[in-house]
Design goal:
The complex is a heterodimer.
Chain A lengths: L2 E3 L4 E5 L4 E3 L2 E3 L6 E7 L6 E7 L7 E2 L2 E6 L4 E6 L8 E7 L9 E2 L3 E6 L1
Parallel strand pairs in A: 2-12
Antiparallel strand pairs in A: 1-4, 3-9, 5-6, 5-10, 7-8, 8-9, 10-11, 10-12
Chain B lengths: L3 E4 L2 E4 L4 E8 L5 E7 L6 E7 L2 E5 L6 E7 L2 E7 L7 E8 L10 E2 L3 E5 L1
Parallel strand pairs in B: 2-11
Antiparallel strand pairs in B: 1-3, 3-8, 4-5, 4-9, 5-6, 7-8, 9-10, 9-11
The chains are: A mainly beta, B mainly beta.
């Protein structure tokens, strides 16, 4: 069965510091995609970053980057130079096998950013 | 325009009422999704429409009835709901039918309370 685990229900970071959110997953597939979505309080969920499993290079989007370790089935999100606007729920997600028309979401990590 | 809109923002209904939630996107996306999200939980997929046809029903009770009148519009008809159906209902869309690969664009949600 496909599972995705976020073991940190809550995290906090000081403004301008760096924080890493963890995600592990289990799959028998060799090729797949992994996603981090952000859901700010009372605002729309948006895609933060996407990683294609066959790519060796870790994805980056401005201050957001991932540490993708395929063998360990780990997909962590690093937020550099944290800003107050980064405070949100962060969900790791990926599709089930041969089910490229939907996503399985992790339980989420609530990130607080302190000034 | 990268926006998914949902109406109403809030809905309170009795267990004998019939109501509908509406979702609209004008991005030319061909897949649309309904999710249910309880507080502090990840979104749970309910339905997927691909090219205006229902492609996934995640064993959702029949008191929830989806409808896709055209490629831009998605409705969720509600009838005889239970208090445990109170939740945030999210709509999303993706460019193609591969929502496990493509970015999903989420609406702000309808917060439903069943009394």
């Amino acid at each position: 069965a496909q599972t995705v685990t976020q073991s940190q229900p809550e995290m906090s970071v000081q403004e301008a510091e760096t924080v890493t959110l963890s995600c592990t997953y289990d799959t028998s597939e060799s090729d797949y995609y992994l996603f981090w979505y952000k859901q700010p309080p009372s605002r729309q969920m948006i895609l933060v970053i996407r990683q294609e499993a066959y790519k060796q290079q870790n994805a980056t989007e401005n201050r957001f980057s991932v540490n993708f370790q395929k063998a360990a089935k780990s997909f962590s999100l690093k937020i550099s130079d944290s800003q107050l606007g980064d405070a949100a729920m962060y969900f790791c997600a990926f599709p089930p096998p041969r089910g490229y028309n939907k996503l399985i979401f992790g339980a989420g990590t609530r990130l607080a950013v302190h000034p | 325009d990268t926006e998914v809109t949902q109406t109403p923002k809030h809905l309170v209904m009795g267990m004998t009422n019939k109501k509908s939630l509406k979702c609209e996107q004008h991005m030319g996306h061909r897949a649309m999704y309904w999710y249910k999200q309880k507080a502090k939980k990840p979104p749970e997929l309910m339905f997927v429409y691909s090219y205006e046809k229902l492609s996934i029903n995640e064993s959702v009770p029949s008191r929830f009835s989806p409808e896709c009148p055209n490629s831009s519009l998605l409705n969720l008809h509600l009838h005889a709901l239970q208090p445990e159906d109170s939740a945030l209902y999210l709509c999303a869309s993706s460019q193609g039918p591969t929502g496990g690969i493509d970015e999903q664009y989420f609406g702000p949600g309808t917060r439903l309370t069943v009394t």
